[in-house]
Structure formats: structure tokens, C-alpha cells
Design goal:
The protein is of the alpha/beta class and 525 residues long. The protein is built from 24 helices and ten strands.
């Protein structure tokens, strides 16, 4: 027999099915107001709250439900755990996950899924525990060892990570994923021959495996094998991380361009755009009329950077064109191999903006270096960042420092304020044209691997790059210089994670440069 409360729950179900979630929640709350332990209403409230991302409300409803029905089933217990996890209640989530395993008919699959859930939540320590439990119960399950390796790598346990991938590969030699991850892990250890062998084997097993192709590309580019690197780099569109803006009229590198309108569009980060625009004038030399679409903060700086190139913001309407191509495909399409150098500088800052900043910064004391700096690369991986705690030796040198970090936090600004020779101007840099005008006033730029390095390099301004143990492919290995930017000097980690050693070297070199500047000023007097 249907009761009035059942009828209201059915009404809530219909509202939920129609997407009227707030009304459904209101209906369910009215039911619970009359009968706080009415199970269908509690269950309904839990799931509808999940759909609206009201995770605390969902977790509360699930907890009340489980208190009334201690074993509601593995799926409901798992969903309750997910609600608690998303509500930030990790301890409760872990208890519910444990209860899920106790109720699950597929214990191994459930444990592995829980490990994946913790990994996706960024808690690799908890994920590792579950993957280890899974591997102990099912030692022949290659996925458990593979994901155990991923968690170990995220926790910085690199040798164990490699061992886990090797075990996964031994169990499932026909699976490409363990080989790909093993290749990447070996590359991070600078075992490049073994890394490339793993990636080649993965491609042989699965020629269409985008991860194998793109990681082989990055490894070859890092090693300076540009011909093979650029070819494989085209697989970046297949790995799920990027999408082409257009699928038709892609230039093949052979069709004549004379008199044709070519649409070139930016991809990835600001630095990539600044680095790869150097190839666009080659299209003009081939007779093309080029329309270049770039990120909005770069439009002013790149406007008019080359004859025959019209620069638009990526948010602006796309004009009609004959051919199109993504910007980072140009080295492959133009077959430039390693011939990446151009006359420097290939960008210039606005004379008017320079004059404004020259006035704003005031006269530079004689014998003192002006140094612009950036320490963080967000939204890129944090291993590129050089936290301010490592900069003290640098700030201790006799120089004027200007922070060009546009997104400094309040805590970071407070840290900078401790140093009398540091001035924070990053918040006044509205776009890269403004940044370029400031860099033009500097004697030197010191920066983590971020777009500011590319601005300085494209302007021909002396810049010191702070580069990790295994850098982004564009900086290659061991070199102190770069074919991309003649004005760049690279300061590299000698071991993974050691920024203190890098910054000590930077400070020593800066102190010597400052002393030379001071001596030159004294001689001039």
C-alpha cells in the first residue's frame, strides 16, 4: 500500500528525473521533516545531493542511512564513501571503503577501484596502500603493479616505481602501458637508452598508442634528435590532452602557399607561442598571407612582429582561409629539423610603454644591476617552480630585484617584503606587452621555466633559466646555452629536487656580475 510519504518520494524521483533537482531536494526534506528515519527519502536525498555537488549534505544523508541499515550493500557503501571523500572527510571515507570491501562480491576489483579513487583524489599514500593490498591478493594482476608504480612515483619513491613497472611488464609483456611508464621513469633517471628502448617496444606493440608516441617524441627532442622528435610529436593530438581547433584544410607541408591565406593558431602555453612564432615568417617567405591566432594576453606584444602576418586574439572570429595549421606543428611541416635559431631579437617592446616604465622605476643607481625574476610556473607542473624559500642567497647579492610574478599570493608578497632590495611590480603587468616593456629596463632576468623566459629570450635580453634535473625537452641536456635563445644561460639541477644547489650557483654568478657592474661604474667615474 502506497503511503503519502511514498507518494512524495515518488514525486521527488520524477522531479529529479526531469532535472529539477532543487525541487526534488525540497520535497525529500519535507518527507524527512515528518519522518526523519524514512529510508527512501534518506537514500533519495543522498543521491540527489550528490548530483548537485552538495557533498556534505550527501555525506550526512548517507551516514544517517547507514546508521539505520548497517549493511546497505557494497554499491551504496561505496557511494557513501565517495560522498565523504568529496566532502573532505577522508577518515570517514576510508572507513566506508573498508566496509565496501567487506560487502563486495568482487574484493579484488573493489580494492583496485578504491586505490584508483584515492589516486584521482591526489592522496597517493592512501592509494598505494590499496594497490599493495590488491597486488598481495592478486599478484598476477598487472594493473595493480602498474598503478602501484604510479603512486610510488608520485610519492618520490622512484627506484620502487621502476621496479613496479618492470614487474607489471613481466606479468603482461603484451601490454604497452607498463612499458610507456617505465620508459618515462627511466628517462627521469637519465637512463635514456633504456627509456627509448621501452618506448620503441611500446610503439611496436601498439603503433597507435599516443602516449608511447608522444613520450618517444619528447625523449628524442630532449636528446636533440629533432627529425624523429617532430614526427612523433604530431601524436599529441591523439593522447586526449589537446584538441585541434579545425580538422579540415590542414596544410600537409607540400601544397604551394603563394597567394594563399594560412590560418595558424596557438596551442598549449604562452611560452610555447612565444617560442614557436619564430617559424611563422617562413610561411610569409613562401608567399602566404598569414593570420596568426594567439592567446589574448599576447596579442599586443605580437601585433606587427612580422610583415605579412595579421595577429588576432583566439577569442576573435576566424576569417576565411585556404589552409590551417597548429603553431607547434610548424617545425614538422617546414622540416626544420634542428635548425631552430633565428636572428635575435625577433620581438620588440613598445617604446611608449618603455618610457612609462622607465619613469615609474626611477633612475637606476650607478653600479647596481636591475634583475627581474619569476619563481612560479602555474598552471604547469609544480616541479618547475622554485619556491621563494630558495631565493634568499640571490636576494642577498648587491642588486635591485623586481618581481614579475603576476599571480603572487599574499603570503608570497609578505615574504618578498622582508627584503629591502626587492620590489613587487607583478600585479601591474596587465599583459605580455607590459612585461616586455619592464624587461627592457632590466639588466638581467632570472626565472623558472615559464613564459617570462621566452619573452626575455625573444627580446634578446640576458636571462638565466632555472631548469630541473630532467627539464622540458626544449632545454635539452647538459648544455649551458640554448639554440632557441642566444641570450639565455641555463642553470640546472645536478640532482632531482635540489634547488638550493642551483640558487647557490646563481647567487655566486650574480655576485660576480654585480661586482663587475660596480667596478665598471667606478672606472667610468
Amino acid at each position: 500500500m502506497t503511503t503519502p510519504l511514498d507518494a512524495r518520494c515518488e514525486r521527488a524521483r520524477q522531479l529529479s528525473a526531469a532535472g529539477r533537482l532543487d525541487e526534488a531536494i525540497a520535497e525529500l526534506r519535507q518527507v524527512l521533516k515528518q519522518s526523519p528515519e524514512f529510508l527512501p527519502a534518506l537514500e533519495g536525498l543522498a543521491y540527489v545531493s550528490l548530483r548537485t555537488s552538495a557533498f556534505e549534505s550527501a555525506a550526512d544523508a548517507f551516514d544517517r542511512l547507514i546508521a539505520l541499515v548497517p549493511q546497505p550493500g557494497a554499491q551504496a557503501t561505496f557511494d557513501a564513501a565517495m560522498a565523504s571523500l568529496q566532502a573532505g572527510r577522508q577518515m570517514r571515507a576510508e572507513a566506508l571503503f573498508e566496509a565496501t570491501v567487506q560487502q563486495s562480491p568482487d574484493v579484488i576489483g573493489t580494492m583496485h577501484t578504491i586505490g584508483m579513487t584515492w589516486a584521482q583524489a591526489g592522496d597517493n599514500a592512501r592509494a598505494l596502500v590499496w594497490f599493495e593490498r590488491t597486488a598481495a591478493k592478486a599478484p598476477a594482476l598487472w594493473q595493480a603493479h602498474f598503478n602501484r608504480g604510479r603512486a610510488l612515483g608520485a610519492l618520490g619513491r622512484y627506484d620502487e616505481e621502476i621496479d613496479a613497472y618492470r614487474l607489471a611488464n613481466a606479468i603482461a609483456p603484451q601490454q604497452p602501458d607498463p612499458l610507456v611508464n617505465l620508459g618515462v621513469a627511466l628517462r627521469e633517471q637519465h637512463a635514456f637508452t633504456d627509456a627509448l628502448q621501452c618506448l620503441r617496444e611500446a610503439v611496436k606493440l601498439s603503433p597507435e598508442h599516443a602516449g608511447a608516441r608522444t613520450n618517444r617524441a619528447q625523449t628524442n627532442l630532449l636528446l636533440g634528435d629533432f627529425e624523429h622528435g617532430w614526427h612523433d610529436y604530431e601524436w599529441r593530438w591523439q593522447d586526449g590532452g589537446q584538441r585541434r581547433r579545425f580538422s579540415d584544410r590542414l596544410w600537409d607541408g607540400r601544397a604551394p602557399l603563394a597567394g594563399k591565406t594560412v590560418f595558424v593558431y596557438s596551442e598549449q602555453g604562452f611560452g610555447d607561442t612565444l617560442q614557436f612564432v619564430r617559424f611563422v615568417p617562413r610561411l610569409v617567405e613562401m608567399g602566404a598571407n598569414v593570420v596568426l591566432s594567439v592567446q589574448a594576453p599576447l596579442v599586443t606584444l605580437l601585433g606587427g612582429f612580422a610583415r605579412g602576418v595579421t595577429v588576432l586574439g583566439e577569442h576573435m572570429p576566424v576569417p576565411s582561409f585556404d589552409w590551417q595549421m597548429p603553431l607547434l606543428s610548424l617545425p614538422h611541416l617546414l622540416k626544420v629539423a634542428g635548425n631552430v635559431a633565428v636572428h635575435s631579437p625577433y620581438l620588440r617592446s613598445s617604446a611608449g610603454r618603455e618610457m612609462i616604465w622607465r619613469s615609474a622605476l626611477g633612475a637606476k643607481p650607478e653600479g647596481t644591476l636591475r634583475v627581474g625574476f619569476v619563481w612560479r610556473t602555474r598552471p604547469f607542473p609544480p616541479h618547475r617552480d622554485v619556491a621563494l624559500e630558495h631565493w634568499a642567497p640571490v636576494f642577498g647579492t648587491h642588486a635591485q630585484f623586481f618581481s614579475l610574478q603576476v599571480d603572487a599570493t599574499d603570503e608570497e608578497r609578505a615574504e618578498l617584503a622582508r627584503y629591502p632590495n626587492v620590489r613587487d611590480i607583478g600585479g601591474k603587468l596587465s599583459d605580455f606587452a607590459e612585461t616586455a616593456a619592464v624587461i627592457a629596463q632590466m639588466d638581467l632576468v632570472i626565472a623558472a621555466d615559464t613564459a617570462v623566459l621566452h619573452v626575455a629570450g625573444a627580446l634578446g635580453k640576458p636571462a638565466w633559466a632555472l631548469v630541473g634535473f630532467t627539464p622540458d625537452w626544449r632545454w635539452q641536456l647538459a648544455r649551458r646555452d640554448s639554440d632557441w635563445y642566444p641570450s639565455l644561460t641555463l642553470f640546472r639541477q645536478s640532482q632531482r629536487g635540489d634547488w638550493d644547489g642551483v640558487m647557490a650557483e646563481v647567487a655566486a654568478n650574480l655576485a660576480a656580475a654585480a661586482q663587475g657592474e660596480s667596478a665598471a661604474a667606478a672606472t667610468a667615474q
